[in-house]
Amino acid sequence: MWPHERHSKILELLNEEKRISTQRLAGVLDVSRETVRRDLAELEQEGVLRRVHGGAVAPERTVEPERVFAERLQAHAEEKRAIGEVACEIIPRGATLFIDAGTTTLAFATQITRRGDVNIITNSLDIARLAERGPGCDILLLGGRPHIAVPATYGETTVLEIGRYLVDYAVISPVGLHPARGVTYYEMHEADVARSMIRQARKVMLLCQSGKVGVESRVSVGRLDDIDHLVTDGGSELQIALANGRIHSSRR
């Protein structure tokens, strides 16, 4: 079992039981207790659990899980379309992009593929299947394990493939954007992909509905300093500031 798979299983068990012992985890994961201790130390650094004597407990703060993908696909469709429209105006022709799997990034990808003259590398099956493409539009689907809940590939293979490329922009849509905690995701496997995309991109663009600003989820993937462009449907009321980037509002 790969480390990211163990981490996901640990978080799944903690979500159900709230407290779990090192000995039990070693049995469930079929690894040594020393390996479990290393995993728990890494997850504690991510802020998704707290180590205690003999095991770990869930963090005290409550983090709401994301709604299922099909529900999110229908929600706030017009806001996502408007965010995607503004993002398209920023991306220059001929650029190469990473785009992660999400409903807001899908809305953006639908528009920029119609425009054409763009190269897209993505883990999203929905984006890879987009049929209406303008001239000069190329889409590459990253390998990996297809996920049940979200139509996308994840895992060690996906992360390794991302490392093969250097792109102009990483376009991602997180679960939360917090002034102190930065860019956060709920699921570990989604965070692994987003973090890798950020690392391999010259610039980072976040597509974020205003309702996600100020939200803190479970797994951190980057700081506000990492963001070059934040595209949102919010305005001046958003309590967020970027040290090195620009905020673009779809509110006309």
TrEMBL record:
Domain HTH deoR-type: 3-58
Pfam families named among the record's database cross-references: DeoRC, HTH_DeoR
Alphabetically ordered keywords of this record: DNA-binding, Transcription, Transcription regulation
Molecular functions per Gene Ontology: DNA binding; DNA-binding transcription factor activity
Keyword Transcription regulation: yes
Lineage top rank: taxon: Bacteria
Keyword flag Transcription regulation: yes
Annotated InterPro entries: Carb_Metab_HTH_regulators (IPR050313), DeoR-like_C (IPR014036), DeoR_HTH (IPR001034), NagB/RpiA_transferase-like (IPR037171), Tscrpt_reg_HTH_DeoR_CS (IPR018356), WH-like_DNA-bd_sf (IPR036388), WH_DNA-bd_sf (IPR036390)
Name this protein carries in UniProt: DeoR faimly transcriptional regulator
